[in-house]
Amino acid sequence: MNPTSSIMLGPDLMGELRAFINGATRNSRKGPLDIGLARVALSLLKTLPASREAVLEYFCFLFDEVVRHYIENFEIASQTGSKDHEVSLSAQEEAAIAEVHNVLCDFVSNSPEAWAPIISKWSLQLLGEISSRYASRAAHSGVLSESLQLWMSCRATRCLIDITTQCLSCLMNFDTESCINALLDTCVAHSPYFDWVVAHVGSCFPKTVMTRVLSCGLKDFCSNQQGPKAPKLNSVVQILGYLAGSHSTDMRRALLQLFQVLTSWSLEKNSISDPITTHQQYSTVPFLLQLASMSPTLLRSLSMDVLHTLTPKILSQLAEQSADWLAYYGGREAFQDLLVHLVLNCPSGGPTILALLLDCASPAIPKQMPSTPEEIVVQSNGQEFLELLLQELSLLLHRSDENILFLSSLRQELKTVFPLLLSPLRLRVQSALRLIGFMGLQSPSVFPNAIAYILTNAKTEDHLSVVAKLLENQASASGNFRKSNRTGLPLEHSNILQLGLEQALHKKDDGLSVRDLWKNLTTLLRWERSGKLNNHSQPVLKAIYASIGTACSALGSSVKPDVAHAVAETLVLALVQEPGEKRTSVTPPIIQDALRLAHSTVSYFFMCVEIDDITGFEGCQVACKLLSRLSLRSSAARSLALRTLLELALFHGPTHLFGANNLLNEEVFTAEESDIRLMDENLKQGLSWVLAQRHSSVFHAGVIGTGLRTLNKTNTTPTSLIQRNTQLFLDAVRSCCVSNAILDPSAMEPGMPTLSLDTVISVSLLLVELISPDVMYNGLPWPDEDMCKATVERDCYIRRKLEQGPILWELLWFIGLQRPALCYCSVILRAVTATLIAQWGSCSHHRDPSLLPTTVRLLSLLSLGQLLPSPLSSLRDVVPHIKPPEVVQVLRDCVWNYMRDHVPAPDLFSRDSHGNMWRDSTQEPPGPQYTETMRLIMLANIDSLGELFAQLFNS
């Protein structure tokens, strides 16, 4: 029979006491734990208060035995490499621990004010002793999370923690400070092995524990006059760091609350505060900074909320405490080094820190300029600290490739840094430039992003000058850091301006921003061409050439004319070379881009023609310059531009602006889903029988199913505007025909042609192609008059086109000036002559007023092109004074027969000393078979043609 059984059955209190003393004092470590003795101890604790200390001491032995057993098994498992550290307690150990846990918890629950302080102190002390005693045997890395896992796996320590938590939950309601002090005192006595207890308790009461730990830590920080060497500081950091990991929101609030107490106290400037409170308030900032320097987790918490409450005004109010702050760190330099270290290691809040420093060093608002001595001190210190921070960044970047958290934070919020580049304050601009240069070393994509922002938002030349500085920074980075980077963007030979321009153009901004972008590019290009940009690689020109595709889209868009004007100004500056200017070494746009640009320039020209103001006129001039430069660089672009110009002006563009009369009310007809038979639709026109050669078989004029054909509209464009537009169009055509000789004005002799004859000839051939519907009989010779019967339909079509589009006459006049290009328009001249002969022949003795201007214009054109020699070249002056039959005779005998016998061939022309083509008609004057009819008709009308007759036939 177990002897303890007879002891437990003792009826009197004295017997239980004797049994407890006998059992607790013997060397029981050699045998198993006695559950009966534990129950006797619990009974004495209930009935005999004097035995409390002895009983609690026995419980210490009891829990220590269980922990020792756990550690021994843990060591065995560690040596064998087993991951199973669970220890199975004996039945008596399990029962003893459970009964002690239940009884002590009942004591605390039933009488918290009496038992909670006693049991709390006992459990904390026991946990501290156990943690310290077995720390050397518990092989772990010392990390708080691993310590928690180790001790919470032990049943004894887990019960002690539960008892402690229940006691503290009762104490927190009426004696919080003494409770936390006891916790920290034990922590200091057994640090760092006891930190896991505080961390676990703090997880149960995060708000209270955080606030009280901060308060107690602050008191210890300032009371010992040791600052960073305060006894409890490491424990405070360990505890708060652990709690901040799982209760970050509560930690941020606790830190913010502590700082707000300081700021409110500073605002009140309470002169009756006791010295202890004043000293604690003066120590708050150093205390918080020290916590942040010892724990990245606490630094992150501080940078989230506390940092956002700081303003230059608050800093000026705290400036009077700065002398007390320095005492904790051994001087001003050490304190500044600490601050720089903290800023560089801030994982978040970088933009807020930068904004605070700049607001202190260089206020953006005049009202924020320093006025008091404290504010002046803050400004001076802000400037000094900002410079120290930038210098330290430079040293770190040149020393290693490690990531700097402060720069990483700024890179995530670049939109807060870029506006500083456009600040009117020099310090802000320079600081932003240096920071972007630093960030560009780690992430080169920052440079194009910055340039894109400036190009889009710059309003003055001072803003644009920042681009030049960014280019210099990037060049410096390329020279000092020739290495790869995580973005894959090469630092060497990278045109960041090109990348920045691409980013800016692909942003979906409004038209105003895009217009400003191109205007800023124009300014930069002007600086580059004048040498103001100290960069011989011409990055601006390269960027523009690389963005030709986007420029073409913007140039040819009529939705945003302001943007198109800005793009045109940029392109004309990039492509047009001034006389005597040094040729650029940049590779010009490829043929595909040149063709796109030619087409877009023509579209831009017609858009400007429709703008009836000075802006449209200037836009047309810019378009002419672009067409001239493109034509000189690419024959394919020249051909495309000419064809597009003629097609749009004659058929598909705003033809009414050039005096066109064929303005039909065009309608779009869509077929129904069901098929429509033409015969069925025609039969719907009437109910009568369809008889041959009767009115019922004749189709109605119009479109079947839609009624009569709509009559032509009348062109209401003012004559002055038509003349202006026509002249602008001819200027555009002339720009496409410029000669390469204009590139070297010094080599040009006076009187030399500035237009390329070959190009003008191509214009004449293109004109024939566009308005002549037949490919046969388009040669230079004029056939016999009888052959006109075979070409009457084509001749009428050509004549109708000339009547509908007066600009065709202007084009022919332009061609006639460049001899012998008019020869290639022989088919057009022949068609007009044939139709005039037929029309004049039908007039009899009644003159048709509409025929005379056309006839005079034709004869003037033949004379201008030197296709009719003298005296036939003067027929234009004769026709207005003679009768219609006489006009027919003149056109047939003098004009048609001469042109038939003398083919208008370019071989008849020779080049003079100046390079101009000329036909010498004096060597082959027309015979009497061509002039006799003219002479006789003039004699018949000698009363009105006498003076002209004397000049032409004086012999």
UniProtKB/TrEMBL annotation:
Source organism (scientific name): Frankliniella fusca
Protein name: Integrator complex subunit 5
Pfam families tied to this protein: INTS5_C, INTS5_N
Entry GO CC: integrator complex
Chain segments annotated as transmembrane: none
Domain spans labelled Integrator complex subunit 5 C-terminal: 232-945
Highest rank taxon of the organism: Eukaryota
Single Gene Ontology BP annotation: snRNA 3'-end processing
Domain Integrator complex subunit 5 N-terminal as annotated: residue spans: 13-222
